[in-house]
Amino acid sequence: MLAIIVTGHGEFARGILQSAEMIFGKAQNVTAVTLAANESVEDLVSHYRLAIDQLAPVTELLFLVDLWGGSPFNAASQLVAAHPDQYGLVAGLNLPMLIEALALQQQTLAEVIPHLERTARGGIRHLDLQTNTGDDDLL
């Protein structure tokens, strides 16, 4: 089973994981790792290592982070670089992406990552009542 670390700035990771579990149900082999304002990338790498130890045994691990280039991304990328065949990293975490990741945990990283990118993009929609176009077919 694919292990997942949900992470981001502040309490974002805990909040989005809690929201996903309200919709999806209790997640297995998933943990949230937070970054406090006074913590460094090195602190976060330590938090990730502890989380990985708690998720063990891990054959494949996916980091889902809030922002490309932020501290959670930078810390995760260090670990992914050390384990490129076992670890993956996707930035831009949103709720549809996380729910989909939970549903796909039986698949491999190679299968999951491209699917999550499509799902996350599909989760961005708009309601345009002026022109009656776009994603307003719900009305």
Blueprint (SSEs and pairs):
Elements: E1 3-9, H1 12-24, E2 30-35, H2 41-55, E3 61-65, H3 71-82, E4 87-91, H4 95-103, H5 109-122, E5 127-128, E6 133-134
Parallel strand pairs: 1-2, 1-3, 3-4
Antiparallel strand pairs: 5-6
Helix pairs in contact: 1-4, 2-3, 4-5
Describe it for me?
The protein is α/β, with parallel strands linked by helices and 139 residues long. The protein has 5 helices and 6 strands. It has one domain (3-134): Phosphotransferase system, mannose-type IIA component (Rossmann fold, 3-Layer(aba) Sandwich). The protein has helices at 12-24, 41-55, 71-82, 95-103, 109-122, and strands spanning 3-9, 30-35, 61-65, 87-91, 127-128, 133-134. Strands 2-1-3-4 form a 4-stranded parallel β-sheet, with helices on both faces. Strands 5-6 form a two-stranded antiparallel ribbon. Strand 3 (61-65), helix 3 and strand 4 (87-91) form a beta-alpha-beta unit. The longest helix is centred in the middle third of the chain and has 15 residues, at 41-55. The chain is globular and about 50 Å long.
